[in-house]
Write a structure and sequence with these properties.
297 residues, mainly alpha, two-stranded antiparallel sheet, 4 strands, globular
């Protein structure tokens, strides 16, 4: 399948994911009725439906999951939602049926970066310094700005200005369910770091925060120069990221990651407050307790 076809197929999957999640939040009663009629169901006590045999591998699959992996993950998700029922102020997703959860997790296949085959990638260690669409100063090559009237929240993966930060924001909600992720190239490491940073930013936003207050909280994280990069003792994925060869490379890498953090923080706020500046999206904040790959920055 060609690159354009693959990107288009993934865009369709993203739309289906968003539509399902939005419908579950807007109509919890419908979600409960679906669970009652679905033979593959779970409740807060754990999975009670039939188990699933391991699915065949595909080009998007990260790991070969066992028969109980998806069911156990779903049971834990619904248990987490149940445990927070008493906290009315905390956003939460309703419990899901197994069929709904399979769609949300794309049938146990995490998405990889579409930039894996990007030609002429600049690398530091095994981390790709991919072009970014940003006005923040730094070492990244600049992509062209969007034309007037183009919506940055609806940018398709085959757009000339689509960059790894757009990709991380579109894949965050699907990939964050996974504790295992097979790294297929340097671009996947950019995706991993961006998703972990999105999680870090979301944990700074409270359900009662207006946009201005959230901007201050996220900016404090994005502009903090004490963050770790591959090779630093505090970096959580040093076993999968090669360190820079020398001090010059380390400074370039730190400058690039700093660009990512600042631009990603701004774009995240656009999405979290897309429906208004008074309160953040409960749908986004529902993912604050998720840890992609079980890691945190």
């Amino acid at each position: 399948m060609g690159l354009i076809s693959w990107r288009t197929r993934r865009r369709v999957d993203e739309i289906e994911l968003a539509e399902l999640s939005d419908s579950l939040l807007s109509d919890p009663k419908s979600a409960r009725q679906t669970r009652q009629t679905d033979s593959d169901t779970t409740d807060c006590k754990g999975f009670v439906g039939p188990t699933r045999s391991s699915s065949p591998s595909s080009h998007k699959s990260t790991t070969s999951t066992g028969s109980g992996f998806l069911e156990a993950t779903l049971a834990q998700h619904n248990l987490n939602q149940c445990c927070h029922c008493s906290h009315a102020s905390e956003p939460r997703l309703p419990s899901l049926s197994l069929s709904q959860f399979r769609l949300l997790t794309n049938n146990s296949q995490a998405y990889h970066s579409v930039f894996l085959d990007e030609p002429n990638q600049q690398l530091i260690g095994n981390f790709a310094l991919l072009p970014l669409r940003t006005k923040t100063r730094g070492p990244a090559l600049q992509l062209s700005a969007l034309a007037p009237g183009e919506d940055p929240l609806q940018l398709a993966p085959d757009h000339a200005s689509y960059d790894p930060l757009d990709e991380a924001l579109s894949l965050f909600r699907a990939n964050t369910f996974f504790r295992n992720f097979e790294i297929k190239g340097p671009a996947d490491r950019v995706l991993i770091y961006a998703i972990l940073f999105i999680s870090q930013c979301l944990n700074q936003i409270r359900p009662t925060m207006g946009r201005r207050e959230a901007e201050k909280a996220v900016s404090n994280v994005a502009l903090d120069n004490n963050f770790s990069v591959p090779g630093d003792a505090g970096f959580p994925l040093n076993q999968a990221f090669q360190p820079p060869r020398d001090r010059n490379e380390a400074e370039v890498l730190r400058g690039y990651v700093g660009q990512m953090r600042q631009e990603l923080g701004m774009r995240l706020l656009q999405r979290v407050y897309a429906d208004g500046e008074d309160r953040p999206s409960k749908w986004w904040l529902s993912f604050t307790k998720r840890k992609f790959m079980g890691k945190a920055l």
